[in-house]
Each structure stands twice: as C-alpha cells, then as structure tokens.
C-alpha cells in the first residue's frame, strides 16, 4: 500500500475513524493492527520478519537493561513469533487473489490456502526450536552470567540478529555474485550459492530503528519497553515504516507510551504536509521519472545535454520522491498526534557537503553520526583518523541504500567530498550568513557536485558511469536533447515548489504561509491543490526509497 | 559528516504560534483557497479553451487542458454538422468498401511494383520511405490513426477486391494491439480519441466471427450525434456490452467536461483506466493472451496471408515495435509467421525501442530510422518478389 494510492485513501480514514472513536487505551491497538495491515499488504509473509525483529530486540532490550524478564514478558514474544509463523507463513497466501479495478473482488482457493507450505513449516519448526532453546537457556543465563557479560552478550545477539537478517535479505546475493565472479575470473568454477529471495520492503528502515533502541538501552540513554505490544507498535508504526524517517527509540517510544494531544493545529499542519508531499511525489517526481528513465535506461548513445538535464531531473525527482514520502508520513502521523523526526531541511540550499548532510535524509545521517561515526571515534583523534571515520561512515551509508557497487561508489564520493571540504575549511567551518541571493552562486556551484553524486547513484552500471563521466568531461559535440520532455504538471510543480521553498527558507518554517494574510494562505493551498490535481494523471511510480 | 547538536525534531524550528492556525483563520483561508481554485478554473477555461473550429490546430497548452474531456466530448467537438466543420482526424480511418480515391489499383507498368499497405501512420511512413529508397515502388496506403490489427485486417478485406497489388502489407503496431478489444480506439486512447470504428473479432471453434460496430462511416456518426440520438445510445450500449475496455466515466460526456480542473481529474481516472487495461494485456515481459487477443490476432494474420496468397499476391507483415515494447510483437507473432512462412520484418532488429534517439517527440521513428527500416524492408521485399 503506497501513500499515493486509492487503497491508502480508503485505509487511512478507516484507521482514523477507529483511532478517534476508541479512547486512549485502545488507540495503540488500532495503530498496531493498522501497521501490520499496511505492511502485510505488500507481502503478508514478511510480517514474520517484522515479528522476528520485534521479538529479538524486545527481549534483548529487557535483558540488557534489567538482566531478566518476567514470565509474561517471555510468554508474549513466544506467542507472537510462533503465532506469526503459523498464521502468516504456514498457509499458502498465494491462494488469496485480489481482483477488479479497485481490488474489490477477492478469490480464495481454500484448499490451496490451507495446504501448509514447506517454507512455513520449516520456519515454524525453527522458530519453535529457537524459542525452546531461549526459554531453556534462560535460567542458566540468569544464574551463571555476570551482569556485564550479559549486557554485552545480548547486545551482540541483537546486532548479529538484526544485521544478519539485513545481510541475508539485502546483501547476501550481491556478495555471493561478486565472489562467484571473482572465482570465475580466476578459472575456478564454483557452484552457484545464489538464494532465491526477495528484498522485504523497508527492512533497512525498521532494522535501523530497532538497532537504535538496543544501542540506547545499552548506553543507558533510555529505559527498555516493558510491554511487547508497545514495542511492536514502535517497530510497526505505519507512517514511517517502509521509507522513514528512521525513528529513534528515544523519540518515538515516549510518544507511543505517553499522552497524545491532537489539536486543530496538528490536523491543519498534517493536512498541509500531506498535500505538499503528494504534490512533490505525484506532480513532480512521478512526472520526471519517465524523463530520467529515457536517458538512464536508454540503449543508444546519449549526449552531454541529455546527461546534464536527466541528472538534474533526477536530483529533483529523488528529492521530491523521498522528501514527499517523509512529508506525507509526518503529516499522517500528526493526525495521530505523534510528531515524527524531521527528515529533510531544504538540502539543495546547502553550500557544502557538511551542510548537505545536515539537511538531506537527516534521520539517516544523524543515525550514522550517533551510532557509527561517534563510536568510531568521530572528530576525536588525528585528522587522518577523522578522515577514515568520515569515509567509513559514508561508504557504509552508501551500502545502506542497496547492495550495488554504484551505491558504494556514491558513499565513497560523499565521503571524499566531506574530507576535501574539511581539508579546505578546517574543523569548525564558519556558517554563511548572507541573504538567499548571496548564497545562490555558491548553492549552484555545490549543486553541480551534488548532481554528479546522483549520477553515480542512478547509473545502471559501471560502464554507464564511465561513459557518462567521459562525455560530461570531454565530449561536447552532441548538444541535441533527446530526453523525454517532462509533463506540464511537473514543470508547473517545480515552479510552485521553488516558490514554496524560497519562502520556507526565508521564514525558516515549513508552515511559512501562516505568516501571511488569509488571502495568500488560501492561495498557497489553492496552488498546491491545483498542482496535485494536475499530477494525478502522471503514471504512478513506486517510491524510490522503498527498494532500500 | 559534521557533528551537530542541533535538535532534529520539527518542534523547535517549525513551531508556529498557536494563534496563527485558529479555526477561524483556517476556515477563511480555505474559503480563499476555494475562490482561488474557481478563479484558476475560470481562467483556464477562458485562456486555454479549444479553438471554436476543430479545423484550427490547438496550442500545446490548449490540448493539455483538454486531454481530460470525455471521449464523447472530444468526438462531438471534432465532428461538425457538415464535412467542412469536421476535423481531419474525425474523417480518418473509416473503412469504406467502395472508397473513391486516387490511389493506384495496380502497378502502372510491368517494371513497377505496387505495394498495398494496411496499417497506421508508422506503416505509411515506412512505405513512403521505401518509395524514396526505390522509386519503382508505387503505393496504395490505407490507414487509421493508431490503428490496430483488426482495423488493418478489416480494411484489407474491404479493399481486397479494389486492388491488384504485387505485395500486400499488414502493419501491426505494438502500442495499438490492445485496441482490438474494442470497436473504437477511443475507449482506451481517450486522450487522442479518434472516432473511426472497426469490427471486434472473436474466435469461435477456431473460426473468426465479427461483431458489427453499428456506426460505419463519418456520415452515420454525424447522424447519430446530431439527428438520431437513439443510434448514438445504441452505439454506447454496444460498447458497454461488447468491449471489455469500455469505461463510462472515461467515455461518456458529463458535467466534468465544463471545468478545466474537473477535466484533469477525469484525465487521471482515464490514465488509471488505460493503465489497468494495458496491464491486463501487456507487461514488461510481453503481451498476455487475456481475452484470447493473441490467438485472435494470429488467426487474423494467418487468414490475411492465406487470402493474399490465394490471389497470387505476396503477403508481408510489418511488426512495428514502438517506444518501450522491445521485441514483444515478435514474441507474440514470430512463431506463427515462421511456421506459415509469411514474410515479415520486426523493427526491433533495426531500431531499439528503448533508445530515445530512435524516436521523435510524437512517438514516431525518426526519419533516419524510418529510412533504415525501409531499406531492410526493401531488400527483403525484392528478395521475395524474385523468389515468387
């Protein structure tokens, strides 16, 4: 279920209705069920992975902080994990087929549905074994392990479990294929170890989210969650579930556990963010997708102008696609009275790489800063060590995006930019305080470097990176433009967005329109609604960051 | 990465004074938004309205804001009360058995070759390029805008007795194949609706049967639109019952046609309809035999070839893979074409459908690519003529 779909437009009001109808006591149940429904619509089997992730970090969090779990705290995860395996993996859910223009007809082949799948039975068996071993080993751990050893042991369990899942589902095939390629080039004919698995949607997002919880508990920054259902909601809270913002446990859990106030302001601000996000996604990003595709996925030769325009178009597309998702997620969440982390802060207004990473995908960059860069040593130590930390952090940040060499290259490029910037301006760069007009030349200069990064990110192969770079640097002979012209809705949407961003920047407030008289305030709404209506007819594309 | 201790929460930087988003203020702003939207709608309807006469070419923006008009609305606009006030597109593509035209019926001399081609603009362009490659070729071209294979087949059948060509070409366009599920392209291609009709072919025990499209000519259409509403209603009723790709929201004229914003909403519904319809018959791996379209299309091609051969002519099939369709027509037709030894040319062997440089902005092949295809076509046709 994607935010810009009819099914979500039906799903959200139903969830809101139940949410507002029920009192505070049951609201978390509504959100939990909604989260599992939202995620299960993609592939119901992956709910088991969400369950595994939830159970693993719920238990490790408690063991790290308290060193023990109550019977209820052990029973709940046991039932959760086995129940999810039994219900979501054992039946053959392919027997349920949604048909009709609006998926309004459901065909169920009951015989097929109730025939257990071998995968489901195997996973159920392994889960049962795992749960049994954990419960049998529990008294031993309690009795024989020292407090400090226990904390480290369970931290490692969590890290190995979470990163192991991520590794298997996201990176295994990539590294195996590369290793096979290497062996083949050496003349060794290795048997194929490729696994026939698909990448669970949003796995990187919820894995990083739960890792932040375990780390914070380990560092004593927060208390563990004592009830599984609260922790399950933290993992499966649906607005940021599949494409962020990557929520921090210390930020989201208090909002899940605490009182929530849904004000009229929240609703209005939420509505504006949803509208802005839809315009960014549907009018701009979806419209530009075809133009970018026409160059980056072209089979023939492309010229200098094609590459430049397609790369600039991709820079706008990826920003609107990803920040559009974040805006909608934040807006929807505000309707539940839960404020999410800010994920974007006008990144293309940046003047240097350091500022860019404070404005782009903030929830990831701050995660990497807090859980990777600083533990690696951060800014402490010699300059060489700082450069190493920067490079390592950014390369791993690149790898987070996907198992492909171009993401690693993109991470390395970002790391190199940060290092070079640091070399030039030193440890504490002075903030630029000029007006927007004065910033503009520097913004545009740095935008060129951002765009080259996007070329690395979007490229479909090494050969393409190499040929595009060569054309950009030395082949100015072909200046004809063959890129598919973006639809009018995208061009108008970009025009409106530039104005919105300028005013937002000047006011340093995403809700800048509130500073103006109602006639202008209403005009902003009207322009966005107009752009949204125009964007409705663009071909709907999946959010780019879903693949990560 | 620079370590920053600044808060990453919305709450600090984006806090709005409570007084700024009061109910009254939002209500007034919403009313203003409504006023602005009405003004935008009226302005678009004034400044970007379509030209009064369908004979005048509209600007790109005029066309853009009119794409969402219903197919019926578009047809009513382009078909005037008389021939003089009817657009060229509305007159194109009608299949007439005894069409009066000045196209050659047979080769003008024994050293000339007459090609009769049934297809669409792509087919016409390739044939015209063929004539440039070799002026000995003469052309008899019958086409419809974005015509599908059933239109081309029906046109051939209607025209067969009028021509004695040496080579008879059937042009199949990848993006038009799905139109064969309807007696008009307007049920799917509603943005570029053309009113011409053709039969829907079906297979009954391996034999072709056809559904009559009810309206057969521009004159009949004019009558249905202006003088005999019952005929138009009958036509709509037939589309509703016989075409699996019919959608009343997209096709039938209603109040949405009068508002620019509402038209854009209809356009989005239309796009979704087109997307859903396409997905039923085609995906990234090729065409899908939903409703038996591939069986029917292959039967039409086989029947066409048999009929042409029975007249002593050479059948030729042009598989035109336009933008994005890779080799999908070849996948759908090649095995039968080879089996029945029907000469054919698939454009994907010459021009990649994923190379944007092979196409001009309206989706047709560039003149250079068209010429390359024509050269390959020429070499193959000459070869077949020699063999014959």
Total count of strands of chain A: 2
Low-confidence spans of chain B: 1-19
Q: Can you write the helix and strand succession of chain A as a string?
A: HHHHEEHHHHHHHHHHHHHHHH
Instruction: Tell me the series of helices and strands of chain B, N- to C-terminal.
Output: HHHHHEHEHEEEHHHHEEHEHEH
What is the residue-averaged pLDDT of chain B? 88
What oligomeric state do these chains adopt? heterodimer
The main pleated sheet of chain A reads as: 2 strands, antiparallel
Strand content of chain B: 5-15%
- Strand tally of chain B is 9
Q: Can you put this structure into words, describing what you see?
A:
The complex is a heterodimer of chains A (548) and B (388). In chain A, a hairpin with a 5-residue loop joins strand 1 (96-99) and strand 2. Chain A is globular and about 70 Å long. The longest helix of chain A is centred in the N-terminal third of the chain and has 39 residues, at 147-185. In chain A, helix 3 (47-65) runs antiparallel to helix 4 and helix 4 (71-89) packs antiparallel against helix 6. The mean pLDDT of chain A is 88. In chain A, strands 1-2 form a two-stranded antiparallel ribbon. By secondary structure, chain A is mostly helical. In chain A, 69% of the residues lie in helices and 1% in strands. Chain B has helices spanning 10-13, 23-47, 60-64, 71-78, 88-91, 121-133, 149-159, 218-227, 229-242, 248-251, 260-281, 293-310, 328-339, 367-387; strands spanning 113-119, 137-143, 167-173, 200-204, 207-211, 282-283, 286-287, 314-320, 344-346. Chain B has 388 residues and is α/β, with parallel strands linked by helices. Chain B is globular. Residues 1-19 of chain B have low confidence and may be disordered. The chains are: A mainly alpha (548), B alpha/beta (388). Chains A and B meet through helix 11, helix 13, helix 14, helix 15 and helix 20 of A and helix 1, helix 2 and helix 11 of B.
């Amino acid at each position: 279920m994607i935010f810009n779909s009819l099914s979500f437009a039906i799903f959200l009001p139903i969830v809101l209705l139940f949410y507002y109808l029920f009192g505070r006591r049951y609201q978390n149940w509504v959100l939990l069920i909604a989260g599992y429904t939202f995620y299960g619509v993609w592939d119901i089997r992956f709910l088991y992975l969400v369950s595994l992730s939830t159970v693993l970090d719920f238990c490790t969090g408690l063991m790290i902080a308290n060193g023990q779990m109550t019977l209820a705290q052990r029973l709940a995860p046991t039932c959760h994990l086995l129940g999810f395996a039994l219900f979501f993996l054992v039946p053959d859910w392919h027997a349920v087929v949604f048909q009709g223009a609006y998926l309004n007809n459901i065909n169920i082949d009951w015989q097929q549905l109730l025939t257990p799948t071998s995968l489901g039975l195997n996973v159920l068996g392994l889960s049962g074994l795992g749960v049994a071993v954990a419960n049998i080993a529990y008294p031993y751990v309690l009795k024989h392990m020292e407090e400090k050893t226990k904390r480290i042991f369970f931290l490692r369990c969590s890290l190995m479990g979470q990163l192991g899942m991520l590794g298997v589902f996201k990176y295994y095939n990539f590294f195996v294929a590369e290793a096979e390629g290497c062996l083949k080039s050496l003349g060794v004919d290795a048997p194929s170890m490729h696994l026939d698995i698909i990448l669970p949607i949003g796995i990187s997002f919820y894995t990083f989210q739960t890792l932040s919880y375990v780390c914070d508990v380990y560092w004593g920054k927060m208390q563990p969650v004592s009830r599984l259902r609260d922790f399950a909601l933290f993992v499966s809270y649906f607005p940021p579930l599949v494409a962020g913002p990557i929520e921090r446990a210390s930020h989201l859990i208090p909002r899940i556990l605490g009182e929530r106030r849904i004000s009229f302001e929240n609703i209005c601000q939420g509505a504006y963010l949803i509208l802005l996000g839809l315009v960014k996604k549907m009018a701009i990003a979806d419209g530009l997708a075809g133009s970018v595709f026409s160059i980056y996925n072209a089979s023939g030769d492309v010229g200098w102008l094609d590459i430049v325009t397609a790369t600039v178009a991709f820079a706008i597309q990826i920003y609107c696609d990803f920040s559009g998702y974040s805006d909608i997620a934040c807006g929807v969440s505000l309707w539940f009275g839960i404020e999410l982390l800010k994920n974007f802060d006008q990144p293309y207004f940046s003047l240097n790489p350091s500022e860019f990473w404070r404005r782009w995908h903030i929830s990831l960059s701050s995660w990497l800063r807090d859980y990777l860069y600083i533990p690696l040593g951060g800014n402490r130590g010699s300059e060489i060590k700082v450069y190493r930390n920067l490079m390592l952090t950014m390369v791993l940040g690149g790898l987070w995006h996907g198992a492909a060499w171009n993401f690693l290259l993109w991470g390395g490029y970002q790391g190199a930019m940060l290092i070079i910037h640091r070399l030039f301006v030193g440890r504490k760069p002075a903030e630029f305080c000029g007006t927007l007009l004065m910033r503009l030349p520097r913004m545009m200069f740095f935008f060129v470097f951002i765009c080259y990064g996007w070329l690395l990110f979007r490229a479909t192969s090494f050969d393409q990176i190499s040929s595009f770079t060569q054309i950009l640097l030395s082949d100015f002979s072909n200046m004809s433009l063959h890129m598919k012209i973006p639809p009018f809705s995208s061009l108008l949407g970009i025009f409106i967005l530039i104005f919105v961003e300028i005013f937002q920047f000047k006011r340093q407030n995403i809700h800048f329109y509130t500073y103006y008289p109602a006639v202008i305030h209403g005009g902003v709404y009207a322009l966005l609604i107009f752009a949204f209506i125009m964007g409705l007819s663009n071909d709907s594309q999946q959010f780019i960051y879903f693949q990560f | 990465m620079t370590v920053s201790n600044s808060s990453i929460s919305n709450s600090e930087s984006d806090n709005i004074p409570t007084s700024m988003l009061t109910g009254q203020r939002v209500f007034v702003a919403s009313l203003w938004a409504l006023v602005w939207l009405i003004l935008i709608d009226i302005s678009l309807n004034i400044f970007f309205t379509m030209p009064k006469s369908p004979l005048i070419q509209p600007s790109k923006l005029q066309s853009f804001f009119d794409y969402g008009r219903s197919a019926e609305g578009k047809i009513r606009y382009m078909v005037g009360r008389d021939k003089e006030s009817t657009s060229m597109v509305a007159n194109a593509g009608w299949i007439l058995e005894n069409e009066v035209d000045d196209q050659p019926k047979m080769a003008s001399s024994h050293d000339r070759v007459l090609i009769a081609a049934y297809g669409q603009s792509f087919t016409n362009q390739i044939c015209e390029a063929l004539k440039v490659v070799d002026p000995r070729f003469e052309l008899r071209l019958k086409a419809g805008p974005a015509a599908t294979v059933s239109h081309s087949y029906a046109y051939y059948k209607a025209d067969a007795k009028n021509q004695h060509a040496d080579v008879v070409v059937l042009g199949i366009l990848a993006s038009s194949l799905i139109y064969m599920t309807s007696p008009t392209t307007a049920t799917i291609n509603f943005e570029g609706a053309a009113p011409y009709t053709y039969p829907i072919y079906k297979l009954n025990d391996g034999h072709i049967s056809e559904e009559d499209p009810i309206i057969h000519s521009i004159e009949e259409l004019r009558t249905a639109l202006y003088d005999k509403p019952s005929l138009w209603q009958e036509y709509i009723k037939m589309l509703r019952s016989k075409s699996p790709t019919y959608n009343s929201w997209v096709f039938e004229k209603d109040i949405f046609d009068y508002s620019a914003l509402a038209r854009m909403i209809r356009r989005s519904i239309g796009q979704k309809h087109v997307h859903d319809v396409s997905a039923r018959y085609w995906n990234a791996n090729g065409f899908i035999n939903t409703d038996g379209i591939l069986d029917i299309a292959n039967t039409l091609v086989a029947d066409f070839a048999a009929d042409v051969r029975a007249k002593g002519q050479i059948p030729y099939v042009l598989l035109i893979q336009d933008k994005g369709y890779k080799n999908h027509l070849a996948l759908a037709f090649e095995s039968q074409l080879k089996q029945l030894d029907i000469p054919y040319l698939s454009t994907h062997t010459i021009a990649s459908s994923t190379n944007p440089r092979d196409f001009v902005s309206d989706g047709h092949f560039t003149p250079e690519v068209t010429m390359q295809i024509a050269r390959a076509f020429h070499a193959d046709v000459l070869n077949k003529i020699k063999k014959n």
